[in-house]
């Protein structure tokens, strides 16, 4: 579904992503792991069009999308969540979903101001879509709650709902389980499995190794911007280079 060739991003003299060849296969859960500062978020920023690569190429379903801006990439079916959830705290969950969806629908500013027939039609479509995705992520009962009043884990589900509202093919999840407890983490892992079962392709950055080992079909390991390993969870957990560079030098470190 997505392929990178020698993808590179430098910030001044600092090479954040260094000649990475990578592939995301349709229908799979692919994980990107690596220590802090390894270049994982920068890699997501490159494939979602937020950053322009210094060199290298990105292909989406065979099409070269290397220098496309983020809104075009989004239209082509890539949605993402961010490490810190970007929701409007004072607005309700429903309004957040409608705003998020509206930003990607067609009516322009004036159409919204005069509330044209097309605008009203789009608005009701957004509302319907919002209800659908909230149900999918198990958060229907939160629709009318202000975001500020829901838990961290619920916010994570809403952020995923927001990504799903655009009907993506590929969803990029940046540390979806950060800051939530073990029970909540397994609930979230179930949701990610359900997304895969629904036919979505998923790429996930996550530090919680146990979750990744249970969830991922394939893992890429980054270290200082460079891909140091790639393979199934079983292959990665016995890879000497990975154990030394990332898992702390002993196989025990894998559990965390
Ligand atoms: N906008 C930027 N400007 C300058 N340097 C940046 C920028 N974004 C990232 N970097 C640098 O690129 C390197 C990779 O950072 P990145 O955030 O991609 O790592 P990461 O693997 O996502 O880390 P973490 O797990 O802590 O989120 C770091 O050295 C970082 O300081």
From TrEMBL:
UniProt xrefs under InterPro entries: AAA+_ATPase, ABC_AA/LPS_Transport, ABC_transporter-like_ATP-bd, BCA_ABC_TP_C, P-loop_NTPase
Q: Where is the ABC transporter domain?
A: 2-249
Q: Name one Pfam family in it.
A: BCA_ABC_TP_C
Instruction: Mention one GO molecular function.
Output: L-valine transmembrane transporter activity
Keywords for the protein's UniProt record, in alphabetical order: ATP-binding, Nucleotide-binding, Transport
Q: Its GO biological process terms?
A: D-alanine transmembrane transport; L-alanine transport; L-isoleucine import across plasma membrane; L-valine import across plasma membrane
Q: One GO term of the cellular component aspect?
A: plasma membrane
The yes or no answer to whether the keyword Cytoplasm is present is no
Recorded hits in PANTHER family, A to Z, give: AMINO ACID ABC TRANSPORTER ATP-BINDING PROTEIN, CONSERVED COMPONENT OF ABC TRANSPORTER FOR NATURAL AMINO ACIDS-RELATED
Q: What is this protein called?
A: Branched-chain amino acid transport system ATP-binding protein
Q: Which organism is it from?
A: Thermoflavimicrobium dichotomicum
């Amino acid at each position: 579904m997505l392929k990178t060739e020698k993808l590179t991003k430098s910030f001044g003299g600092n090479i954040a992503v260094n000649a990475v060849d990578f592939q995301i296969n349709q229908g799979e859960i692919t994980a990107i792991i690596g220590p802090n500062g390894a270049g994982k978020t920068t890699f997501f920023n490159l494939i979602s069009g937020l950053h322009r690569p210094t060199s290298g190429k990105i292909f989406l379903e065979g099409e070269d999308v290397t220098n496309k801006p983020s809104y075009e990439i989004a239209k082509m079916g890539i949605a993402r969540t961010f490490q810190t959830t970007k929701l409007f705290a004072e607005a309700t969950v429903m309004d957040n979903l409608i705003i998020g969806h509206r930003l990607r629908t067609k009516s322009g500013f004036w159409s919204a101001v005069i509330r044209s027939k097309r605008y009203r039609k789009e608005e009701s479509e957004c509302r319907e879509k919002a209800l659908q995705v909230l149900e999918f992520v198990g958060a229907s009962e939160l629709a009318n709650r202000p975001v500020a009043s829901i838990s961290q884990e619920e916010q994570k589900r809403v952020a995923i709902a927001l990504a799903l509202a655009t009907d993506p093919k590929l969803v990029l999840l940046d540390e979806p389980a950060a800051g939530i407890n073990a029970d909540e983490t397994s609930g979230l892992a179930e949701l990610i499995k359900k997304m895969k079962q629904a036919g979505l392709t998923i790429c996930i950055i996550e530090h919680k190794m146990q979750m990744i080992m249970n969830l991922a079909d394939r893992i890429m390991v980054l270290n200082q911007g460079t891909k140091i390993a790639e393979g199934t969870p079983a292959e990665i957990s016995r890879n000497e280079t990975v154990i030394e560079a990332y898992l702390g030098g002993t196989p025990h470190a894998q559990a965390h």
